[in-house]
Task: structure prediction
Amino acid sequence: MKTEPKRPPLDPKDYLIEQCRNGDQRAMMELYDRYARAMYNTCKRLLNDETDAEDAMQEAFMKAFDRLDQFSGGVTFGAWLKKIVVHQCLDRIKKREIEWISTEETILQPVAEAEDDRGTYQVEQVHRAIDALPGGYKMILSLYLLEGYDHEEIAQILCIDPGTSRSQFARAKNKLKHILTERHHVG
Result:
């Protein structure tokens, strides 16, 4: 009697992905439930609008399910999905026609920090200040600090030069410091 060699059991996520590839609606729902909150938070940070964030997340999941055959497992499913989510958000932002701040415009001078002011900002203050940034600044700051992309990756995502990403990031930080300092001294 000949027995077939046993295959190692699939990781639960790999099994779910395989089931999704086979059109299993329950598996799709379970995968959605596992990742929806994190992907929504990414959308909300990038879009700053709950309705847009929800729509972008839904569209990203639909694209991901349609393209599961392209997921090779070279990265985690979450990282692969997040890239789709970020691109979906970028598409929405491009439709809003973000104006990138020209590199010829006056460069903001770094805000001098008083010793007393260091580290005294609440998380909510920082979030509100980030939301007040111009769209291009907010996008690069969010992709770099909150989503963990480097300037080379940001350049690819936004179709800009890595140097532009770096300079926009530096300006975004200066503008953020300026906003926080103004609000801190006013409030």
